[in-house]
Design brief:
CATH class of the largest domain: Alpha Beta
Number of domains: 2
Low-confidence stretches: 476-490
Number of helices: 14
Shape: globular
Structural class: alpha/beta
Radius of gyration: 23 Å
Distance between the termini: 45 Å
CATH architecture of the largest domain: 3-Layer(aba) Sandwich
Amino acid sequence: MRVLVTGATGFVGRALALRLLRGGHEIVAWTRNEERARDLLGPSVLLASDASPGRLEEEVALADAVVNLAGENLFSGRWTEATKQRLVNSRVDLTRRISTALAASPPRDRVLISSSAVGFYGARGDSELDETSARGDGFLADLCVAWEQAATAARTDSTRVAILRTGLVLGSEGGALARMLPLFRAGLGGRLGHGRQWMSWIHLHDLVGLIMRALDDTSFEGVFNATAPEPATNREFTRALADALGRPALLPAPGVAMRLALGEAAGVLLTGQRVLPRRGAAAGVRFAYPTLSDAFAQVLDQGRTPTIRRADRGTKPLANRPAAQFVLEQETRIQAPLVEVFPFFSRAANLALLTPTWTDFRILEHPQGETLQGSNIVYRLTLFGVPIRWKTLIAQWEPGERFVDTQLRGPYRLWWHEHHFASTPDGGVHMVDRVSYTVPLGPLGRVANSILVAPLLKRIFAWRAEAITLRFNPDAPRHGRSDTQNRSAA
């Protein structure tokens, strides 16, 4: 299936791209910045933009499905009139263009899956809301109504339209939760306002699964609430997150302060909706993460986090470099054959999909053909707000079994990353990442490793495991179980 995706470089869009690649679909990402999209999505996703007049109409005509996820961040600042207009334009105007292009295309069976939000229902207190509930009041409700009307205009006898009213999407490396986690990990989290307002949420894997179901199931038409079956009050959400992290959550954000900081936008966070996915339940949708405890167990799963230990004394991968101080190790079970897995990991351009977006990772130079021993890769990323140019060398290359990249120029005194692959009896792959590294600055560097470097590497490799699950493994792990395991190096 050829799938045109708007918003493909966003939090949900990248996860969907990985899942579509697993299914063998052809993906076209509609983007405002093709260069940045290439950095984020890798070489397997085709790109298109308004740089060519009429390109959107061409891509819509070629597509078997359109997944419309585009839209500016609702909470990037106060809702001035100019901000409101940008929020509308980024959602409604593009959706209208897509619907118009679908109507003008030769008729054939296709589907438009378009985002909306639970803000459609407005502030409704403790009322239980489902897809039959009336719209609410306020700017966000007005925006959602216009957004949905623009999508519904595409519906014809041959074009199916499914609209997903999405709640708060939970994942470790994007969305609102990624902004909450540093505060809660530091023990500085707390409820918003009085905390009695309802939060309707959904785990990232479940949202991607719902989109995939809507792509494949011709009975998926009309509005569906993309929310987990157990909404929670803000107080319950705060307590569950703090408990999952083993931290207190004693510092509430007063409603008055929030309104001073965010203005009208704060009202969305201080009211909320109690939304239930009844149409999905009637259609047999099953959630891998139906409760907050399930969702947080997966998002914070230490089974996806690598182990880091002190290196054995004298461990020296390179004769002309310092001995290793630390060893990071992560083992991953991949449910795909070696002939599919090894080429993906050995292609430098795919590093983008395996790296979290907050690193601002960009490949500057990489082998154009087959990766070989002696190949160089140059990329740039931002760590702790500092841009870093990093050059690596493929020091060892054993196709189908192992390869090693080592830093030639970058932030470490030593970086030696071994990638090991072995087929398993069930037709999958057992992959081991083992990184021997040394930080600069002697004793001060060892302190920096404990406080900054090791936690940073754990976050990066945790996303790597998440991306691998989305890209290769048939089903998301249920109730916090992970496909990545930790073991100490032998």
